[in-house]
Amino acid sequence: MKRVYSVVYTPIEDGWYMASVPELPGAVTQGRTMEEAREMVKDAVALLLESYWEDARKDAAENAIWESIEVEVSLK
Predict the structure, then answer these.
(1) Contact predicate 2/19, CB 8 Å
(2) What domain count does the chain have?
(3) How many other C-beta atoms lie within 10 A of the C-beta of residue 5?
(4) DSSP letter assigned to residue 34
(5) Is 67 part of a structural domain of the chain?
């Protein structure tokens, strides 16, 4: 499943870059370069979503009904 998220890159001390995803609190990482920050934030998002998914599966009732929805969001 492919999803698109916004990423904010902020230059921090010693030439490093902090990367955060506003839609996913907790998806924050850093890299020595923009390229490294891009790769690190992809990993952070994947791990965070995987964790959310595992928690949801554990907490769901046995008779829960699962489905996917598509939502369009206008970001201005």
Answers:
(1) no
(2) 1
(3) 13
(4) H
(5) no
